[in-house]
Amino acid sequence: MTKRYTTYKRLIAKTVILSLLASLAVAFVYGIFIKQRAIDDLARVDARKTSRMAFEALYSAMEKGWSKEELDAIIVRLNDVEPDMRINAYRSPIVAELFGDREHDKQAREHDPMVMKAMKGEEILTGDDEIRYLYPIVVKQECLSCHTNAKIGDINGVIDVRFPVANLKISLTTMVNSFIIFFVIFTVLIFAILYFRLNSLLVQPLKQFIGMIQDIIHQNDMGKRVTLKTKILEVKNIESYVNKMLDSIQDYYEKLQHLSDRDYLTGLYNRRKFEEFLSYEIKRSDRHRHKFSVLMIDLDNFKYINDTYGHAAGDVVLKEVTEILGSNLRNADILARIGGDEFAVILPETPYEKGYVVVEKLRSSLENSPISLMYDQIKLTASFGVAEYPEQGENIEALLTGSDLAMYKAKRAGKNTIARADQTDQEMAAEIQKKGEFLRRAIDEGRVEPYVQPIYNVKTNKLFGYEVLARIRDGEGVMAAGQFIEVAESLGMACKIDHIVLNKGLAAREEKKLWDVEFFFNLSTNSLFNGNYIDQIKSHYDNDPKKKKHGVTIEILEREAIHNVKGLIEIIEAMKNEGINFALDDFGSGFSSFVYLKYFDAEYVKIDGEFVKNITVNEKDRIFVKHINQIAQEFGKKTIAEYVEDEETLEVLREIGVDYAQGYYYGYPKPI
User: Is the pLDDT of residue 347 over 70?
Assistant: First the structure.
């Protein structure tokens, strides 16, 4: 049966009507009460006063010796004063005995029950529409002089007063007090009705609603729904819309949970979730005392596929590889994609000997499963690295590093092979972990510092700029970048170090007011792709009092640029639009150096120091430097020679026409 609901508009209307009816009921009851009180109290008072006045009038006449006819005339005159009021006086038998009886008095004494009661000394008040008050006249001491046959306390007679209820006169005080009492009762009643109605139909559902929302928040349970006990349509609508909102939130929550745990392309677990499973498997292995294996997989020559067929085809290949690997694993095995073309597998309760069989199955299946791309079919292979717990590592970092090193060993062995982490790999992994821990502490403790080496104008011999270099303070000594940068890159800490050095270097440039000095920063391509350095450098430029919007140069290495030329070109263009310069570092160290002059819009070319340091004694190096300088300048680039360590080298560079130079001849790296 469909439950019917009301609205707050109807509720308010019902409450007003109910309150009105209740107030009318109270007014009716209170009116009856006032009327009864008037009859009981006010009528008695008025009637007693009237009776007393009639008695006093009669008594005064009797004192003067008036006859009974004259006394009757007084009663007639009293009745004429108030036409709606009738006054009668009845003699008691005592008075009748002494002064004579009257027929209507006798009839009243014998046949009127009220008069009979009053003759016995009882004061009587009766009537609804007409008030009748019978007042017995009691014999007092002063009455004995005339009424010699009576004694004190006897009844000499009864005065009978009758008048309509409508003639009752209520005092102003009584009316005001009655109104105040009625208003108070009415107000209390209205507020009581409103309180209980609103409390039951509004406040309680809202409290229930708040309580349910708090439970959902505290328990983080997106599956719970709000259920409110209410008859109000608006409250029911709140319940409905909140539940719909919770449905949407739950849907988004589950999608976000999926995205946070899964790789968007393959649907496999990502690195973060893989490490969670690995942590759980270590605990389970310790508890049940069994071994398990961790497998790292890196596809061979995958870059060739992307370069030849495009990235869309590369995505198709990754999905196909996922299907091949997944179909050859057990349900309990955990497969994850942890990088571009890198996969990882946990083989629970599987020591190396059994794990090797599984890995060989994966390798063979991948090798013998051609993948269709456009009109071609390609055969794909991979290099596999295996680490066993706990032999090759007793924690997550050791296992991942060990299996990673084993995978690189398989690459070096010719690819499409399986390698196992051995003792040497363990020692290497331990060393990497040790250095990694050292780097983490250095970063957390703020011991990463920028050092600068000056760059001079070769022709004018004036300071042109500084190259900002990363250093780590270790006690009294300082570690150069060459001692930690490779480990930092392998452990993903290079970006953090780049950020710290850039931030501190720019701050020092501001503090020292070196606005006319060019600052060169070494940033890895990973940092450029993953860091928002444009806003950081723009903010630095904004602090320049001359607002020249230049003075920062980013150095990029050829060996890093080769991995994503197109993406790097886009980043360079975006940063150059904000006044940020670029330099090609270690130029000449690779085979593609001159090609980059065509694609990268860099302001400076830094000639590799390996060619510079021996130009005074090695003719081939001199020729290299000469031609690098000539080609760079023909492309409109300024050249900077590194490793300038003596005057003779500087003189040769002047002859060649190199623009700038840096090296120990001009100064060692030092704090700013």
Answer: yes
> CA-CA distances (angstroms) from residue 532 to 415, 597, 637?
37, 25, 26
For CATH 3.20.20.450, the residue range(s) in the chain are 437-671
Q: Is domain 437-671 classified as CATH 3.40.50.720?
A: no
CATH classification of 271-421, choosing from 1.10.287.630, 3.30.70.270, 3.30.70.260, 3.30.420.40?
Answer: 3.30.70.270
d(CA 167, CA 171): 13
Q: How far apart are CA 523 and CA 578, in angstroms?
A: 17
The model's pTM is 0.44
Tens-place pLDDT, residues 127-185: 767 778 788 888 888 777 777 788 888 888 888 888 776 665 555 566 666 667 767 77
- Beta-carbon contacts of 273 under 8 Å, excluding residues fewer than 6 positions away, are 260, 261, 262, 336
Residue located via tokens 């067929």: 309
Residue owning tokens 């946070």: 260
Residues of the chain with CATH 3.30.70.270: 271-421
Q: How far apart are CA 402 and CA 295, in angstroms?
A: 10
pLDDT one-digit tens code per residue, 389-447: 988 778 888 888 888 888 888 887 888 999 987 756 555 566 666 777 888 888 888 89
Cα–Cα nearest to 467, from 478, 476, 480: 480
Which H or E element spans position 136? strand 130-138
Q: Are 533 and 523 in contact (CB under 8 A)?
A: yes
3-state secondary structure of 292: strand
Beta strand residue intervals within 312-420, DSSP E: 334-337, 342-347, 371-373, 376-378, 382-389, 418-420
Under DSSP, is residue 454 helix (H, G, I), strand (E, B) or coil? Answer: strand
What are the residue ranges of CATH 3.30.450 in the chain? 19-170
Q: Which fold has domain 19-170?
A: Beta-Lactamase (3.30.450)
